Amino acid sequence: MKYISNKIVCGALSMVTLLGTTSCGNDFLKEDAGHLYSDALLEDESGALKMAAGLYGNIRWHFGYEWAYGITLYGCDEFTNGADLTAEPWNTYDNRLNPQDCTPALGAANKNCPAVSALWDQMYYGISTANLIISKADNVTKEDSRNKALGEAHFLRGYNYYRLFCQYGGVVLETEPANGTVKKSFTRASEEETLNLIIDDFEKAYQMLPKDKWRGNGTWTKYTAAHFLAKALLYRQSERCASWASKYDKATDLNRAISLCDEVIAACPLASDYWDLYAKWTGIDCPNEGLSEILMAAEHNEDKTTQGRFGNRTYNYFDPQFSNFSGGWVQRGQYIGGMDFQRCRPTEYAYSVFDNVNDARMWKTFKTVYGLNHAAKKDADVISQNGITADQVPDLGDEGIIFILNKKSDARFDGNPYGTFGRGGDVHSFVNPLTGKWVPNAFVTFQDGKYVLNTYTGNPSTSNVFCGINKTADGSRTGEKGDAHRDVIMARSGETYLVKAECQVRMGNYQEAINTVNVLRARGQWKKGENRSYYTDGSMAFLKSDGGITDNSTAASITPKKNKDKSGKQLTNAEAYAYSMTHTNTYYLSTGIAETTDASDLQIKSYTQLPAEDEAILKEIGATSDYDRMLNFVFNERTRELLGEWNRWDELARTGLLVKRAKAFNPEAAPNVQDRHMYRPIPQKFIDTLQNEDGTNLSDADKKAWQNPGY
Fold it and tell me: What is the pTM of this model?
């Protein structure tokens, strides 16, 4: 954290280590004896603020390993699994997703399968620390410092309970520090009690937190709290709370949420260009990490002393397995901002939901071209094997992999007029008509009116060939598998617009909701003069000459992989980067339109006439009433604006749309997903350690009563 002093963060993270070394089970919610030290620390102003700074370390957990995507993106409509099946049960909802942590002995593909207890454990660590700060805050005499520490503690506690509530429903509510005691008897609160505590914590944080980022980038402010308070109030009026929420006035909750959204929107304006949020990441602590739109982020940098237990591993999860299927033409390395772990494969829906001509967000999110960075075969062999001519043979820096993001109605590629598509290891003859060059790996999304992008490997349900997204790309990594250094955005005012729009839908103000969404769509459309075929992503941080803040320290090194030119000369990392990052996309090949620099138009005039992409989706899921159409439209827009931003499962479960949309758009989830899957199972290892107040063990019936229905 560049903007929060290393001394404070190191001390704070040390406190987190003291307070957060417990585990779910016998030590559930137990604080380490370090509380004796922390009590003394909280006796003065600076100590309280150091302790509160430590709360920021807790949110890094969310992006440390496979649970980052497993519990947030899998099993929904936007992503399914690739050929790597590390977190497969979370996507397919098969019988391995149960109260037991899934290990290889219980059917997991490997030991990295996200545990059902992971979120439960980690959220309570943060809650425990927050409780301690709240309980001792009265010791701080200076009101400003006291409110800052209290505001951050209430926010983190509210946020952690919010994450628990979204996944499990009602949970154990602990609001007092354990003071070194070990408890085994707990009461599970109702959903209503849990959400009301969340709302109360966010309300307190909203009242206490300053408006400015007084700690620097990453600071939780009044507007961060307002955003989540609005989300919590919206949640109370959502479908999952319908059985008990009628006692809370719908108009009161939703109008308050809209008012909070308006406050955030006014104070935290959108970035002027969608590029700036993710793609134009130029290096560690770059200016774009301080955009006013960013309300909450898990802060990361290259300083090992402030890293804590969890680094940023998110760059691993969104790329296809290009080093496997490319036939050697595209090699991986830290000069490509993402690793090809092929965890999150976009569904047909995730491509089809975009207007591929007019929506710039599609082309600023999907990486459609990988430059050829290794001469894998001799020219003569390429010519003879693939039936092309000498002038069609590509060289380093030409297209090594392309994804054509066309539409189902597009007939330009029917009958293979430009040659057959395929992987680099297969014989195929596709020559890009726009470049005149054979492309070693060329894939079209739709052909002959059918979705074919998942058919270029043996099993369509585990394809490693797909067009991934760039929101986590990081060219600052100095080790191919080292942690990323960029911040992970957890909330931004772009989402605040969509929270407001959904509130308006729920109040029947459909045209107002369209007007709200149109603001995002205006930002997302092409601007006059914009080069629609240009592409970049966070890989640009690798070289200063390409826009990075500094040269990667490994730039001059010889590539550890087999990156060679046609003469056999081995490349440096800098050369491999230059050939890999072509700064081009497949926009014109995908759309077939004539080259233009005109502005595009994404504005919707009436809620009764939604875009063609939306109408096709609404027809697929049978949404016919104005309310169902508009609610699903908002969720389509959430995909276009927020694809891959770590909250899709929570949002779909909240609205009761999870099952319908997963069945319609996720073929791997469709056979098994049921209503019970709108809740996660309560971890069995926690239930098994519970006791009655008199110290006796729970009966089987008591244990069953703790568990969510259907597990």
Answer: 0.95
